[in-house]
Design a protein that fits this description.
Elements lengths: L1 H5 L4 H38 L1 H25 L4 H19 L9 H22 L5 H21 L13
Helix pairs in contact: 3-4, 3-6, 4-5, 4-6, 5-6
Length: 167
C-alpha cells in the first residue's frame, strides 16, 4: 500500500539522491577530519619518542620486506613486485639511518618516493591480472606499499626539534 502512495511521485528519487549525496559529503568530511587528527597525533608521538619510533620503523620495514618474500614464494606474486618492494624497503632503511633528521630533498628520500610510485604501478599490474577482494587489495596496499613511506614521511617532523650537530 505504501508503494502505491509513492508510485506517481517523481521527486522521491531526486530527494533520496540529494540526501545520499549530502550524507556522503558529511561522512567524507568527518572521515577526513578523523584521519587528519590521527596523523597529527601520530606525528606528536614520533616527535616525542624518536628513538622508539626509529625501532618501530626499522622492524616494520623488516616485516614488510619479509612479507614481500613470503608473497613471492607462497602466493605467486610477481618477481617485479618482489624486486620493487624489496628495493623500496632497502632505500627506506637507508633513509632510516638519517632518522630523526630526514631531509626531503636528499637523494635517498627522493628515491624512496620514486620507488613507492613504481611499487604502486607494479601492484596495479599485479591486481589487474587476478581477482581478489577489496579488503585483500587494501591490505596489500596499506601494509606493503604505503606503510614504510608513510612512516618516514610522518617522521619528517621528528627532526624539527633536534639540536644541530657538527659534522
Amino acid at each position: 500500500r505504501i508503494q502505491i502512495l509513492f508510485e506517481g511521485s517523481t521527486y522521491m528519487g531526486a530527494i533520496f539522491v540529494t540526501i545520499e549525496w549530502l550524507t556522503f559529503v558529511i561522512q567524507a568530511t568527518f572521515a577526513t577530519v578523523c584521519i587528519a587528527s590521527g596523523l597529527f597525533y601520530i606525528t606528536e608521538i614520533i616527535e616525542e619518542y624518536s628513538s622508539i619510533s626509529r625501532q618501530v620503523f626499522k622492524w616494520s620495514n623488516v616485516v614488510v620486506c619479509i612479507a614481500y618474500v613470503l608473497l613471492f614464494v607462497f602466493e605467486g606474486a610477481g618477481f617485479i613486485n618482489l624486486v620493487s618492494g624489496v628495493a623500496m624497503c632497502a632505500v627506506g632503511y637507508i633513509v632510516l639511518k638519517q632518522f630523526p633528521v630526514i631531509e626531503m630533498l636528499s637523494p635517498s628520500f627522493i628515491s624512496l618516493i620514486v620507488l613507492m610510485i613504481l611499487n604502486h604501478i607494479t601492484a596495479f599490474f599485479f591486481f589487474r591480472d587476478r581477482y581478489m577482494s577489496f579488503s585483500q587489495i587494501m591490505s596489500y596496499f596499506t601494509l606493503l606499499v604505503w606503510l614504510v613511506p608513510l612512516e618516514l614521511i610522518l617522521g619528517l617532523v621528528a627532526g624539527e626539534n633536534v639540536l644541530p650537530t657538527r659534522q
